[in-house]
Amino acid sequence: MTPRPVLPLVDVTLLASDRLEDRLAVAAALDQACAQTGFLYIRGAQLDAALFRRLLVRAEAYFSLDQATKMRSYIGGSENHSGYVPVGEEQFGVGTSDLKEAYDVNFDYLPATGRRPLLGPNIWPDMPGFREDVQAYYDHVTGIGRQLFRGFALALGLAENHFDAYLQNPPSQLRLIHYPFDASAEDRPGIGAHTDYECFTLLFATAPGLQIVDKNGDWVDVPLIEDTMIMNIGDMMEILSNGRYVATRHRVKKVPEERYSFALFHACDYDYVVAPAVRGEVPRYAPLKGGEHLFNQTAQTFAYLKRKVARGELVLADAVPLDSFGQRDMARA
Ligand SMILES: O=C(O)CCC(=O)C(=O)O
Ligand SMILES: [Fe+2]
């Protein structure tokens, strides 16, 4: 029997070490794993399991509300693309919508100046405790993200603080996703095949279901490992690394049991221009404006934004097709 493909596992505890050589060792492990698969598990003393548990309780309570109540926080009514995403709102591919609902939380940007399409105040449901626990999780995981950005800087041969200046108000998004189980539902994907748009994603899920495309173009299951998060490379890190790390295509099929997943997509500041950062290499990617890329790709998959584009209320600048990154000639499903 062929052994099940297992993704690399990197312990990131020592990213918080005072000793540079410890941090360099984690960076080297991160580099190897990202160059190899673009998908890996991370574990570390930084991960606070209590925050995961609290988030799950809040998500379960929220998604069990009736539809009309959930729709009071509809994402289409927000200023910064935050709020409730009903089943069918998001579509990857023509004519297919995902069998999932979500609550999207963005960077909660309150100042009146400096707003951008994804940078503004969050909307929150009227549910005591939800905002506090979700924000605590967001702060916790974006904090781990900051350490990882430093790890990536070392891995790419840059100054360790290279990304710090571009992480002032990044529109990093946390998605609470609920995949309902419905045995009688048609066999449609929980989430269609895609790459993530940002630098990297940290994901925590309650059940298996995630699949990735391997180097041969085959879909393989990503099993869950206790006390780890799943991490993957997104479009922007593919560019930054000049293709050394590739944004791996992934999907969730129709789920065999109810499933929750929490994905935190780590971006740099909206106006940060993402370009290959590795010194001494000929750039293989054109630069793009990070926030604009994020918004453009979002506007190609969310129904409320597609309607705005169709009505001419929204004009996208320099949008690239959704499948511009990741393995180019592999199976699409
Ligand atoms: O639910 C999952 O495991 C994956 C979610 C995902 O890929 C996404 O939200 O981009
Ligand atoms: Fe994804």
Automatic annotation (TrEMBL):
<dbReference type="InterPro" id="IPR005123">
    <property type="entry name" value="Oxoglu/Fe-dep_dioxygenase_dom"/>
</dbReference>
<dbReference type="Pfam" id="PF03171">
    <property type="entry name" value="2OG-FeII_Oxy"/>
</dbReference>
<keyword id="KW-0266">Ethylene biosynthesis</keyword>
<keyword id="KW-0408">Iron</keyword>
<protein>
    <recommendedName>
        <fullName>2-oxoglutarate-dependent ethylene/succinate-forming enzyme</fullName>
        <ecNumber>1.13.12.19</ecNumber>
        <ecNumber>1.14.20.7</ecNumber>
    </recommendedName>
</protein>
<comment type="similarity">
    <text>Belongs to the iron/ascorbate-dependent oxidoreductase family.</text>
</comment>
<keyword id="KW-0479">Metal-binding</keyword>
<keyword id="KW-0560">Oxidoreductase</keyword>
<dbReference type="InterPro" id="IPR044861">
    <property type="entry name" value="IPNS-like_FE2OG_OXY"/>
</dbReference>
<comment type="pathway">
    <text>Alkene biosynthesis; ethylene biosynthesis via 2-oxoglutarate.</text>
</comment>
<dbReference type="InterPro" id="IPR027443">
    <property type="entry name" value="IPNS-like_sf"/>
</dbReference>
<dbReference type="InterPro" id="IPR050231">
    <property type="entry name" value="Iron_ascorbate_oxido_reductase"/>
</dbReference>
<feature type="domain" description="Fe2OG dioxygenase">
    <location>
        <begin position="170"/>
        <end position="268"/>
    </location>
</feature>
<dbReference type="InterPro" id="IPR026992">
    <property type="entry name" value="DIOX_N"/>
</dbReference>
<dbReference type="Pfam" id="PF14226">
    <property type="entry name" value="DIOX_N"/>
</dbReference>
